[in-house]
Design brief:
The complex is a heterodimer. Chain A contains 3 helices and 1 strand. By secondary structure, chain A is mainly α. Chain B contains 22 helices and 3 strands. Chain B has helices spanning 7-15, 23-42, 66-85, 92-110, 114-133, 138-169, 182-194, 203-207, 213-234, 239-258, 262-283, 286-317, 333-346, 353-367, 371-397, 411-429, 432-436, 449-468, 485-488, 490-544, 548-563, 571-586, and strands at residues 47-54, 57-64, 478-480. In chain B, a hairpin with a 2-residue loop joins strand 1 and strand 2. The longest helix of chain B is centred in the C-terminal third of the chain and has 55 residues, at 490-544. Chain B starts with 6 loop residues before the first helix and ends with a helix. The interface between A and B is large, with 47 and 49 residues. Strand 1 of chain A pairs antiparallel with strand 3 (478-480) of chain B, so a sheet runs across the interface.
């Protein structure tokens, strides 16, 4: 009986590169409808091209950087409360 | 046929019979109980019943309307799935505690008055503690004690508030609170403690991750969502809830991004999701209140699913920290797939339940032209995908392969996860059954072309940021300080302040009085008289015109003679001499 080969798709750098390309393509695809649809504007800014993509990008960068910043103060060793 | 038997009573009385069942019969029994309770909720007719007179109060144990029924459905449905998940478990204590806990949460939801609500509220707190203690680790014992102490505090606020409210209004009926006074504020604080609103939130991420595998799944649903129910019922349209809710959404994300333990990430993500619900309550329109109830409904399902997924990993590997996990997709593919469905649902991917429920709250904010609220909720939506949608599955199932090869979880756990995954997708694709049970009529379609693509845009670009910033998100073996610091370290710090402070005063006093003053007295006794005697003589010589070196020599000579007792005098005689000198000089 031969041992079943382990699933190693995500271990191969070639596949990881393909996944990166897929991610970029998907991001680009979500922008396409913005060319020919008109989004109803509620707050003046939310109708501009790629607004939600931009919002997602900026907010996530900001959240990560902000958490990094407060992490300097808030992060402590796991045994902090045991001492 | 309809019956007015309380679903709460069914579970609580049913819990008492758990020890009489053995082996698999016990597992089937605890699955059947919430299933029966679900049908009991289903056939309840709107109205009030099960009224009783108690110490001068008219208690109502069964108030049935669309709101209480909606929560009744999801509470029993989730219990059904959770007990399928817990099929392997034969622990009487945990099963009974869980049934008491779920039963009393139904008791809160169907309570028509504040007194019986308070009673069930307290039973919930006590019963749920056993789900934490049952982990039987030292950390769980300590966390369980902190958990119950904090809920005792919350319960006391609620009790005081109810007492004031009753004396003010003369009524114990639990309906929307009209005006703000001490009574209603205290009731609000009591509810907010259970809703895990900052600064009363740290009990949740402190305690839930220490609970048992199945305990975490059950705890994730009831305490916070009964609180959401009570806020929908009691405080709709209270503007402060908008701001508390908005803070919670961001607060939950920031902490979830910092955390290393998968179950702590999910705990903070509960705070984030309850934030959306509280915002909906605060906006207070029919649409946003519908949104809150719908979101609570869907949230219970996908959050339980996520806890099940993390619980399966903990069950199979004994680990829950991201730094210990990774690469599990190879041996736990089903757990990954179900977890990913939960992650997609919490992120509100189109075709999942999060999309059809959260949109109601966000559109509720748009309809009221609340620009800032809308913006915060959209930012938080992006952040949800970041911390719960990708971070959780990525670090547990992918990331760096840590060489763990645990194998897939048992069948009943997979069955429960499959059931919850099905519900996540079903309610995402066919939201109508959910919309039909909401408190107000819904005319809403989440699936406009523009809405779907806007959401996809938001999510894909959030995903892009996650992978671009992956080096910054590398997990560290740390925990994060939350407000529990004040009662975990703060207590000790207060002791230290006392120690340093009071003992400091003590030492200072010692230096000043014991050493200082006594030393001064000693020195005074030694040469004080001589020094005092110098004073009039020096002044006298100075006035006579003696200056500089000559004055110094005379001074030194006099001091020497006085101090050495060349001028024979005890202190008493010296003093007498001194006075004579002074009188002589002044006269």
């Amino acid at each position: 009986m031969t041992e079943k080969k382990e699933f190693d798709f995500f271990d191969r750098p070639k596949n990881i590169r393909k996944l990166w390309i897929l991610l970029y393509v998907l991001c680009a695809l979500t922008l396409i409808p913005d060319f020919f649809t008109h989004r109803e504007m509620h707050f003046g800014v939310d109708g501009i091209f790629g607004f939600y993509g931009l919002l997602g990008f900026i907010s996530c960068v900001a959240l990560i950087l902000f958490s990094k910043l407060v992490g300097i103060v808030l992060k402590v060793k796991e045994n902090y409360y045991d001492k | 046929m309809t019956s007015n038997f309380s679903p709460a009573a069914l579970l609580i009385l049913g819990a008492l019979l758990v020890p009489f069942f053995r082996g698999k019969a016990k597992s089937y029994y605890v699955i059947l109980l919430p299933a029966a309770a679900f049908f009991l909720v289903f056939q309840l007719e709107p109205g009030t019943s099960l009224q009783t007179h108690f110490f001068g109060f008219d208690l109502t144990f069964l108030r049935v309307d669309k709101l209480s029924k909606a929560f009744g459905y999801i509470f029993t449905l989730n219990a059904f799935a959770a007990f399928i998940y817990a099929f392997y478990l034969k622990d009487n204590t945990q099963h009974m505690a869980a049934l008491f806990y779920i039963g009393s949460s139904l008791g809160v939801v169907f309570a028509g008055d504040l007194v019986s609500l308070y009673f069930f509220w307290e039973v919930m707190a006590v019963a749920s503690t056993f789900l934490i203690l049952a982990r039987k680790t030292d950390k769980a014992q300590a966390a369980g004690m902190r958990y119950i102490m904090f809920h005792v505090f919350g319960g006391l606020c609620l009790l005081a508030g109810i007492a004031l409210y009753i004396s003010e209004t003369g009524s114990i009926t639990f309906n929307a609170m009209a005006d703000g006074n001490w009574g209603t504020y205290l009731i609000l604080i009591g509810f907010l403690v259970n809703a895990a609103a900052p600064p009363f939130s740290a009990w949740l991420p402190d305690a839930y991750p220490e609970a048992t595998v199945t305990g975490g799944v059950i705890l994730s649903a009831y305490t916070t969502k009964t609180a959401v129910y009570t806020l929908v019922r009691g405080f709709p349209g209270w503007e402060i809830l908008i701001w508390i809710g908005c803070i919670m959404t961001i607060y939950g994300i920031i902490y979830a991004l910092l955390e290393n333990d998968a179950r702590r990430i999910l705990a903070y993500s509960i705070i984030n999701q309850v934030g959306f619900m509280l915002t909906g309550v605060g906006i207070g329109t029919m649409m946003s209140l519908n949104g809150t109830v719908a979101h609570a409904f869907c949230h219970i399902i996908y959050k339980a699913l996520l806890w099940m997924s993390a619980g399966s990993v903990l069950y199979m590997t004994g680990k829950s920290k991201c730094t210990d996990l990774g690469g599990l997709h190879k041996t736990m593919p089903w757990t990954l797939i179900f977890g990913a469905v939960g992650a997609a649902a919490i992120s509100a991917f189109p075709a999942t339940s999060g999309f059809t429920s959260k949109s109601l709250i966000i559109d509720g904010a748009i309809h009221e032209h609340m620009a800032w609220v809308w913006l915060v909720l959209e930012i938080a939506s992006a952040g949800v995908f970041l911390h719960a949608g990708i971070k959780f599955p990525y670090f547990v199932f992918f990331a760096k392969d840590k060489g763990l090869r645990p194998g897939e979880t048992n069948k009943s756990m997979r069955l429960a996860m499959a059931f919850m995954s099905f519900l996540c997708i079903f309610l995402g694709v066919f939201p109508r059954p959910l919309y039909n049970i909401l408190p107000f009529s819904v005319f809403y379609n989440a699936y406009s072309f523009v809405h779907v693509f806007s959401q996809l845009q938001l999510l894909m670009f959030s995903a892009l940021v996650f992978f671009l910033f992956l080096p910054l998100l590398k997990r560290t073996e740390t925990i994060s300080i939350d407000t529990d610091w004040f009662y975990r370290k703060g207590g000790r710090l207060a002791y230290q302040i006392m120690d340093v402070g009071l003992n400091g005063i003590n030492r200072y006093s010692d230096r000043i009085f014991v050493k200082g003053f006594a030393g001064f007295l000693a020195r005074f006794a030694k040469d004080g008289i001589a020094r005092l005697a110098l004073l009039p003589f020096v002044t006298y010589w100075y006035l006579k015109g003696t200056r500089f070196k000559r004055l110094e020599i005379k001074k030194a000579s006099l001091y020497y003679n006085l101090a050495r007792g060349v001028i024979p005098a005890g202190i008493g005689a010296g003093m007498a001499a001194l006075f004579l000198v002074i009188i002589f000089l002044l006269s």
